[in-house]
Amino acid sequence: MDELRRQGLDKMKEVYGWDVPDIPGDYFKYTIDHLFGTIWTRPELSMRDRRLLLLGAVSALGLDEILEIQTGAALKNGELTEAELREVAIFITHYVGWPLGQRVNKHVEMAVAKQNEAKRTKESAGD
Length: 127
Fold this sequence. Notes:
mainly alpha, 2 domains, 4CMD/NDH-1_regulator
């Protein structure tokens, strides 16, 4: 595996929080090598900056699956707090409109609930 592919796979794991297998094919190559190996690793923006920009873009496009992934990853990685994600939903609603904004809010609340449930499960397992 070349260095760019390894760098891309490592960055994708950092962004999403899970291991991604190395899959053959051009589509995967461009996603991993270019997007994650080259674009996500540029030093000018922090992970938090990139996450906020991505949340804005996918919110405007109404991409529910990506909103679900991104809100959960932002919480899991500690890039945004529950309060900050809720503020993102309020702020972005005023730019993308209420129908799309309520979808953002829905995914924020789902991510918060999922994280809180995971914390409760972990705490009760430790008892």
